[in-house]
Amino acid sequence: MAGPAFHDRPGVIWMDGEFVPWTEAKVHVLTHGLHYGSAVFEGERAYGGEVFKLREHTDRLHRSAQMLGFEIPWSADEIDQVTNELLARQGHANAYVRPIAWRGSEMMGVSAQKNTIHLSISVWQWPSYFGAAQRLKGIRLDLAKYRRPDPATAPSLAKATGLYMICTLSKHAAEEKGYADALMLDWRGRVAEATGANVFFVKDGVLHTPTPDCFLDGITRRTVMDLAADRGYEVVERAIMPEELPEFEQCFLTGTAAEVTPVSEIGSHRFTVGEITRTLMEDYDAVVQPKSAPAAVAASG
User: Fold this and answer.
1) Neighbour count for residue 81 (Cβ, 10 Å)
2) Which domains does the chain have, with CATH numbers?
3) What's the pLDDT tens digit per position in 236-246?
4) Active-site residue 145, yes or no?
């Protein structure tokens, strides 16, 4: 991402109950979350000074922590209040919000029952994940080598840091080949998601999306499904095989960072940025903006 390194930015980060200067928000090198991936996080966006569906994100953060066997020692109300205060302190009307909770450094080893649970929240300006121009014309996806894991082998419905290792590897491999991202299959060989976003396809006016039984049922995904229903579009959740890709006419990704992003290619398969995709992009852009936000503010950031 363009801009200053993330460890060297102005402002403050909320960490374990206090606002600390951005450059001083640090953890010890022997923190359990770094060594064993015992951390959970959220990705949220603020529009016009308000975080979209903040409580849903905060509740999911708590659920993810419970799936990893720990409790976050701050309530949803406390986290939401701090998030809103931090957003105001940072002075960004439109911004990305990253809460993360992790096990600390009291114990070092696989076991960590006595480790302190830490929580931090950071806010920064982050424009379109794939770039505005690229997003409008549709991005190109590679097919990932790694697959989303069987829920019997990992807590696949948690937004946990360790589950993103194969996403980073897959995205790096795709970018090295000139693609923007990669489409991942699940352990059964079914279409799952991109490395950080859910996927939808369109065929004969009907939307098709993989059943999220081994990956996140995204908050943005559900929002777009509601918007599609409001428009009278049929949405089918089902198992989708990669052999079906040539049959689809349109494709798009959904996620807090990606918002609604059209896809023009997946490997050798081509898609158009059609009317349904464009309509849902516009509807999503409209619904995330606070009703009271001035037009100039809503368009910035």
Assistant:
1) 12
2) 12-124 (3.30.470.10), 132-288 (3.20.10.10)
3) 999 999 999 99
4) no
